[in-house]
Amino acid sequence: MKIVHVLAFVLCLGSAEAQVLETASIRLHTGPVQSVAVRISGPRVTFLALSVSNLLQYAYDLKSYQIGEGPAWTVSDRYDIQLKAEGDGELSTAEARKLVQDLLAERFQAKVHRETKDMPVYLLVTGKSGAKLKENTDTASAYRMMMSSPGRAVVMTVTKGTIKQLADQLSVNLQHPVLDRTGLMGAYDYKLEWLPDGAAVTDEDAPSIYTALEDQLGLRLDGTKTSIEVLTFERVAKPSDN
After folding, report:
1. The domain containing residue 46 runs over which residues?
2. Which of 109, 118, 203, 232 has its CA 20 to 30 A from that of 74?
């Protein structure tokens, strides 16, 4: 079986002028989770309905499969959080991530370490007949992705999306790591329509996601194993009071 190697992620994101967390408000999200959101506005960062696992993903720029198993509440409990850094300047994404690292350590008493774990993955590669993608070179155009389900099928419509963004979205849909190995570096417009796994199939239905990728986009998923670095909990506690 082919083994591929993944570049290790870095736990500390520091910057030349590290932002200092001035205030933090954490409240348990008690209603239904209709959406999750992350917003940066000036020196403030707002999170809506994120779990500790979600916060770790954001803080260290990781995927869900790179977060090791912790207490059940780190996935089930959701929090609404407001952070403010010192000063009035606009936070960069890297600075906002560092604030969340500080929040996790201070208010959730989170201590994590990285380790390497062998796991099955999909490699996204070009199919035998080559990619069937329309490159978008319009400088005024921006990335946009819309998911819809008009019937039993799922339809993903993308404007100016990279193949890495496609691989990341497939990881979410398949609940399985998907790594881009196509070598395609552009931004593309495309539509992908497939029938989710487990749905009963009729002659009129859309194909499986594996068939749809090759027939509609000229791409293929190859299964293999690789070593991926993950964050593993050493300690975590429910947050201290505001």
Report:
1. 3-117+228-235
2. 118
